[in-house]
Structure formats: C-alpha cells, structure tokens
Batch of 3 targets.
Target 1
Amino acid sequence: MVSGSDWSRMGDGDPSIADDVPPIDTEGAFQEALAGLVIEADANDVDVRGGWSIASGGERLAWDVLITNLSRRSTAVIDEAEFPASAVVEAVAERRGVDSTDLPPIYDAIGPDILEVLHEADPGSDQRVTFKYAGYTITVDADGSIVLDE
C-alpha cells in the first residue's frame, strides 16, 4: 500500500518521490491511495472534509470531494433457536464489550413479540423493523440479520 506521506510529498516537486509511487490507473488503486491519505490526515488531526480545486497543466478541474465520518456499523444474525430479542441484546453487548445484563431491558425500546413475529416471517420478504436501543439504531430483517449503527 502506498502511504499517504508518499502522496503528500509529491506536491513538493521532488520527482524521485513520484517514481516511487505506483500509477493510479484503476479504481482500486485510486481507493487505496485515497484511503492512505485520509488515514494519515486523520491520524494527524487534519480535517479532511471539503472540496478542492485541482489544476492540471493550465486547465482548472473542479472536483467535489465529500469525506465524512460514517457511522460505525456492526452486524449479527439471529440463529434459528434463538429468541430474536435476546440475539439483539447479545449483539449490542458484544459490540460494547459488556455483559448483556449491563444493558437496559429491550422491552423499553421495542416489544419482543414484534421481533418474534418478524423472525417467523418469510425470510425472503423485505420485512424489517428499525428501532433505537442502548444508543444504537438497530435494524432487524426477516432473514434474521441484525444491523447496529451508532
């Protein structure tokens, strides 16, 4: 992987550095290079949000680049033998690194019977429920998938 410092030094006019940096000739190479820059900038407390005007020769190119901090997402799956409400609580506990008994009762957020009905629905359906619990936005799909968003 190309480090962000290799890319950032390219603007210093040192042609030897440009020789060390592989060309960005695929979408994957672009994503890798951009990821390296963003990670390095974030590690140095640089605010990377915004848009930039880029000059190429005498031509001005305008690019809108939007970089935002995405919510952290975790996923889990309800096993056939599990109670869906228990699976949600366990997923949150695992995410937080705590015991499930340290979390508030799930029935304060959603009726466990709603999750049971959803769990018994056709897994191929597009039925889902989204609710807030213990600081997370939780989506449970009929296929048994659980998504936790901060």
Target 2
Amino acid sequence: MRRKGQAHKVAEEVIADFGKRLPRKAKSARDLLAKELGPVRWAVPGILPEGVTLLAGRPKMGKSWLALGLCVAVASGGYALGKIPVERGAALYLGLEDNERRLQGRLRKVLVGGECPENLEYDTEWEALTEGGIESLRHWLEENPDARLIVIDILKRVRSRNQPGRNQYDVDYEALEPLKPLVEEFGVSILVVHHLRQLEAADPLEMISGSSGLTGVADGALVLKRERGKQDATLVIDGRDIEDTTELALKWDEHIASWSLLGAAEEYRISNERRRILEELHRLGRPASTREITDLVDSEYDTTRKTLQRMEADGLLTVTTKGRTNYYSPNSPNSPNSPNGPNSPDASVGTIGTPTSKVSPNSTAPQSSLIEQDVGEPGTSETIGTDDLSRFLTAPPEWFIKQAKDVRRQGSEERLVNALANAAANHLYGAPHRWREGLPAVQEWLGRAGA
C-alpha cells in the first residue's frame, strides 16, 4: 500500500510538472479572419447585447421598472420601451429587493391587464454568485435553451461579502466575473442593476457606485439619469458592442408604470425647446421679439435666436421686421407646417416625440381577427369626436398609420383601439391618460380604414 501511494504521488508530480512545461501556442490571425462567427445577439437591439451589462441609477428613479419592463418585452416578443421590437425568448427576473406582493403589483401595472408571458420566470431570493448562485443560473439556462435575458436586481444581493484589506478594484471585478462564462456558453444578456454615486460627474460612467473594476469587467453599462419629480429621463448607453456612446430620451408614464422611448436625447432636447417656444407664443397671443421669447422660455439669448431662425426656416414660425427688431409668431393651426399639422416635428415616423403604443407594447395577447391588409387612410372626412381629433384623423400622420399596423400584429382588436387612442391623446393633449375621450372616434376611423 505504501509503494502504491508513493507511486501515485510521483505520478501526480510528473503530470503537474509536465503541464507546466507545455507552452501555450498563440493562434493565427489569418485563421481568425477565416472563421465564420455568428453576429452579436441582442436582447434589445441597440441597447442590450449579449454579455454582462450594468444598469445604474439613483434609488427610486425607476431603474427596477425599466428592468422589469425589458424582461416582459423579451418574454413576450413585444416592444421594449414601447417602440423597439425584440425577439421572443425566455427571461428571468430576480427581484431581490421585492417581496411577492410588491412584484405582483408591479407586473400587473406593466402588463396593463394583458396576459403574462409563459416564459417569464422570477424569484425574490437567490444565492450569492460564489455560493451557489452561478450554478443555479446555469441550471436555469440549461432548462431554458431559448433564454435571452436575465435581470439581477440588485447586485448587492448576489455579491460576496467584502473581505477587509482587499483591493477594492479586485473585489468589484470579481463581483461580476463569475457571470462571464455563462455569457460565453449560452450567448445570453445579463442585466445587473446597481446604484449611482451621489456626486455628479462629467462622464456618466464615472457616477456608477464602486471602483472602475465594475465597469472594467462589465461588457456594457446603462446609466439612467432623472431629476427627482421629473417625468423625462436620459438613458446613457455604452459598451464593447456599442459603436458610439448613445444618449436616449425616455418618458415615464405613471398610468402604465412604464418607460417610453422618445428618441435621441440631444434631438429631443432641441424638439422640446421648439415645443416650449410654440406653447409660449400661443399663450401670449401676439408676435414677440427674440428677447421677449428668451425670457418666456428661460433660455440663453443666442440659443433662442438660433432656434427661432431654424424654426422660421422650417416653416414653423412667421417673422415680421419692425425697424431692426424681428417679431415671431406661430403659423396658423391649419398650416401644413404648424405644430399640429401633418408635417410637424411630431408627425413623422422616427422623429423625436413620436407617440408610441403605451397600452400593450409588451402584451402577448393572441392574434385578433383583424384583416391582414394594410391600414390605410380613411376614405371620408366627416367630423367625428372633438375638432382637434377630427382634424387629426382626417389625415393621420404616417407614424399613426404605422403604429396601427404594428400594434395590430401584437394584440387583440381591443388592444389595437386602446393603444391608438392612447397615442392620439398623447399627441393632441400631451395626456395619454385621456385616451378614453378619443376612443369612439378612433374606433370609427379604424372601421373606415378597413382595420
């Protein structure tokens, strides 16, 4: 027995020593170029690729609602942020700061009475990643081969306990590192919710709580910035598979507890400035000078002057000159280029401020009996509903017609009508919760449009 034990020990030493002597062979770059590698998989195109992504925001700013909404959209194959179509796949939401009652309430609000996707799963408890959590995630991924998204809300609940004396960079790096092999093996997107620092920074990524070890190990980062009490927010997107850092403008709709995409943040800021100028001029009821408009919108003089010149060039304003002073007034409401006209900034497909489906963007309701022909413009022009809504539906903008097609494919006939009424109310009144007021008129429009 002694000889056998010694022989076994010698064999182990030889194998270990042999392994150390084997040099690692570098790979050929030509072979790499010749490989056929599949494209990056996106849970949410342009926002959430496969990999480990941090979603950071201050407490009570809506980041958990955003994460849950993305899960529902992926599980249903619906629309993320009310606008971005996503491929359907299994989704796991780990709401580790919620109990079941609170999570149930959130789900009901997000689904807006719709059917819950069958392949959306959840848990409110999970082991730390290094204490069985990774094995549990692997088991879930093996049982769900169509998995596309895992949300861990929040990082604090799955990271190992801090060991005093250790380098903070190493501790933070190792907090997310165990997730990387799962991404490589299963091609899944893992969104990890985290907090922001209290201090502001020029670079939003530097606001993420912790050391640079977190952003160093993560494949990407989403930073949700929102002033407390404000409905609008900015989502900063950066990552290894994101070509350029992107800022998106989001709007919070408290009636359906969801974030909606408005568009690129910078373009939205410009569009919002134009909207404020038009509102103030309509409220004033007479032409106003550049200085007066600057004071009304509480902006910088040069910024307002340039904006007014662009708005006049775009046909949104009329300018009259008295002496050396220009006076601006909005075009008439019936003008094609007026704020409510079909050529307004809000009336074309893909422009900032385009209303999107806010009733059932994540719904998995079965296909309705709606005919498959395209939804066209109505064939008559009789007055229906309010005057504003009547004019709107007489020649609806392209985005409205497109949304009718998109929402029809996603939900039941009732959901199509409700979603379009919601969008019309948002466009006309800036109040999507008033959708019931326009419901009869939208129903009539759909009937005449052949939908």
Target 3
Amino acid sequence: MPSTAALPAARPRIAVRRASALALMVALCAITGAGAPLAAPSAHASFSVGAVVLAHAGITEQSLPVALELSATDVARGYVDLPAAARLSIVNTSPAGFALDVLPVGGVVAAVAVDGAGGQAVFDAGGGSIVERGVRGRGIALALGFRFQLAPDALPGRYPFPVAFSVRPLAD
C-alpha cells in the first residue's frame, strides 16, 4: 500500500534567488562605492554626415496598343501609321533629364518614326533613344504616334505591338 505521509513544504526557489541577487547587489555597491557621485571629465565630439541620392526614372504605360494589324494595303504601301497610339507617364528625379529608349521588337518593322516628345525621331530596327533634357518630376505625360516602316518580308496579319519602351535618368 502506498505511503500517505506528508512531505515537508518546499521553499519557494524564486524568493531565494531574488534575495540572493539583492544581497549580491548591496555587497557590490558597498565595495565599489556605487551611489557616490563620480567625477569624470566631459568630452565633446562632432562629425558630419553626407548622403548621395541616386537619380531614378520609371515608366508607366497609360495606353498602348497590344497588337499591330497589317492589311494587304499596308503591306503593299510598305508602312502603317498609328497617330497618337501611346500615352506614357514618366517619373524622373534627375535634374539633367531622362532618355526614353525605343526598342523595335518582333521583326515585322524595319524602322519606326516616333512623333511626340517635342518632335519626330526615326530609328532603324536597332532602336534608339529620345532625350528630354532638364525635364524631371512625377507624371510627365508623353503622347506618341508612330509610322512603322515594314520589313520587306512582312505579311498581312495581327502582330504583337512592335515597340517596347524603357526610361533611364540622365547623369548630371
């Protein structure tokens, strides 16, 4: 039969630890003289901080065709016009301005003339940049129209829009 004898009450360990810690702190204060004012020489230092903020440019397509429709008449003529086809919004923090990179893609276009942004720029299939000097801010609106000079082997049909854009800040 199991024993039912009462065990002696255990001392609370937390109270013992707290009392020991308090006694140790009082002893250390007495030995080191803590609590007495300490005299220390005052010191003074100064330094300067500088920061360089890098210029940033970004682009948002507000309106851009998803496709280019080529008819037999367009192919026979050798070009197709899309006036006011794209609206872009530019963000630029560089006081020097920005460059809008125009990149023909897809192979159906031999050259592209871009109207807007203060004039007309013509690029071959390798593309190029339209530079806007001294223009910075948020929501810089660009309305662009295009004349696509078709590649000699272009056929009538529906093609993905043959131009991609990127933007970069100009260096000061």
